[in-house]
Structure formats: structure tokens, C-alpha cells
Amino acid sequence: MRSRLRRKGARAGFTLIEVVVALAVFALIASLTFGTISSALNTRDILEADDTVNQSARIAISRIRRDLSLAYLTTNTSAVNTYQTVFVAQDGNPDRLWFASLAHQRLYRGARESDQTEITYWTEDDPDTDGAMVLLRREGPRIDNYPERDGSIAPLAYDVKAFTIRYLDPQTNEWREEWDTLGADTPNRLPRAAEVTLTLLAPDPEDAEKTVERTWATTVMLEFAARLTRSATEDDDGS
User: Fold this and answer.
1) In which element (H, E) is residue 39 found?
2) How far is Cα 154 from Cα 45, in angstroms, rounded to an integer?
3) How far lies 139's CA from each of 113, 126, 164, in Å?
4) pLDDT band at residue 5, thresholds of 50, 70 and 90?
5) At 212, which helix (H) or strand (E)?
6) Contact 39, 165 (CB under 8 A)
7) What mean pLDDT value characterizes the chain?
8) What is the distance between the alpha carbons of residues 194 and 71, in angstroms, rounded to a whole number?
9) Are β-strands 193-204 and 152-169 bridged in parallel, bridged antiparallel, or unpaired?
10) CB 215 within 8 A of CB 195
11) Main-chain dihedrals φ then ψ at residue 67, nearest 5 degrees
12) Predicted TM-score of the model (pTM)
């Protein structure tokens, strides 16, 4: 009698069906957890890549703004044993630009350098990204009218899709796609302003395998350029 009661009160083990159900529930929870973690990691990677693109664009735009704002031309174009300063912009989408500027910054104290420099901006195909370019900046220590010689070259932005600049003519108050201080249309004079547009490829938030175009634009006033020509109908108060 006692042996029979012990057998009735003893706890039964798990059946095969209960084990299978428990394993299925565990597998479902593990799958959901893995999916959530994977999605969070992908979102993190996309946000980090997007932040890198934003930072790259801000740095590039800031450098271009400083260089252009301090562009200058010498008024004496017939001096002996001197190089003529130029401001030449070619429309090509992407554009190409070289000019003299006072934007050079000395990195070492006591270095025999001035603030004068010759700067060139252009693009080349990006070896790591199909359909994209690298925005390059060359800074030459001497004004020599040779934008492809000497100086140091550094990449300013990667994954560039488009780089365009247009220029405001202070005499006509109209925007130009090109500018050449050696030409007949704009002889030895600077544009009043430059409108810079930079388009970079950024990761697609909805698909990590794809990219989207992100565009930044800014307008730079050239400090040493002539002021805009006032209209004949403009009042003294500017209206």
C-alpha cells in the first residue's frame, strides 16, 4: 500500500511532446532576439556611416568657403619677374577650379611662409566606389599659374557624385557657370560670390545595400571682389 502511494505522489517527468514544445519556444525567442540585435546593429552602422558623410561634407564645405572667401588678384599685371594671379573655373560637372588665395595657414612657428597660396579643386574617379569620385585639393606654396605642378595634394571628400560651382558677376548681377580672369569677358576681376554645391553618396536608411544622394549647398562672398553694380532704378535705401 505504501509503495503504491509513493508511486502515485511521485512527480512525473517531461514527455517528448513537452520537450519539443519547449525547444520550439526557445528557438522562437532566440530567433526574435537575434533579429532585434541584428536590426539594431544595422541601424547603428547606417547612422555611423551617415554621420561620417555629414562630417565629411561639413569639412569640405568649410574649407572651400575659407579658400574662396580669401581669393585675390594683383592689380599690377605687367610687373617684371612676377607671376600673374588668376581665377579660372571650368564647367564640367564636376567642375574644376584654381585660383590665388590668402588662405594658407602656417603649421610651424617661424616657418618662412606667407598667407599667399595657389589652390586647385578637381575630382577623380573613386577607386573604391563605382560611379563615385574623390574631391581633391591641391595647395601650392608659390603663385606660378601651373595648377598641376608642385604643392601638396590631399583628398577632401570621398563618394562624391557631383561638384558644381557657379559665380556671380558683379557687373551684370548674373550667375556664370565659368570664370576666367585671363579671358575677355572677365579680365582680371573676381566674381562677387560663388555658389558651391556638393553631392555625396550616403547609405540608404531602408536598404544597407543601396545608396542615396545627399546634397549640400552654400554661397560664399569673396572679400576682395568688387561690389555689385547698382540698378539705375534702385533707391538710395537699396529698394
Assistant:
1) helix 16-69
2) 27
3) 13, 21, 20
4) very low
5) strand 207-221
6) no
7) 83
8) 11
9) antiparallel
10) no
11) -60, -45
12) 0.75
